[in-house]
Request: fold
Amino acid sequence: MEIKVLQVAPIGTNCYIVSDNGEALIIDPGGDAADIIDQAEGLNVRYILLTHTHYDHIGALSDVAKAFPDAKVAVHSTEKDHLYRPDRNFSVGFGLDFVYSGSVQIELADGTELPFAGSVIKVIHTPGHTEGCVCFSFGDVLFSGDTLFRSSVGRTDLPGGDAVALIKNIREKLYTLPGRTVVYPGHEGSTTIAWERTRNPYVKL
Ligand SMILES: [Zn+2]
Ligand SMILES: [Zn+2]
Reply:
């Protein structure tokens, strides 16, 4: 498996391009569409996966989806409509009215399994940062969006946030993954489940 990390505009959100066994996917095309398209050019992009719909994670979605028309766009069902509502995707906070120009092919739920590269990507619904936050588990890797960061957790003070749910979901759904699982968050650097279980100041096991 190859994982490319792009830190994209406007605030350096991590966009991941994952390739394995001749297939590829893009997680959180938050900005800098031309760079993402360039880095993924020639790959067999099967999915564009969204961990949630805050603007910094979806800002390049329209252009990237257009560039890879065979890729299925996937988002948790509770946030699908946020893609089309600037007040809910908070693009208004960046002085923009972002409305996604394309359609959603897959509405995710807890436990959804997406076939990929001869294996499956498992969807873990982890509301707390937002109601429709999901993490994507693939082999020994977890893409955690804005739920779990290295030694930190996602903010819960925005509409749809729930601090109690966030902590419960991290403890019950993420810390129960194997300790060796490498975590790639929506911001900043990677970590492991083993590290966070014992050292995360916000949520210990
Ligand atoms: Zn967010
Ligand atoms: Zn974010």
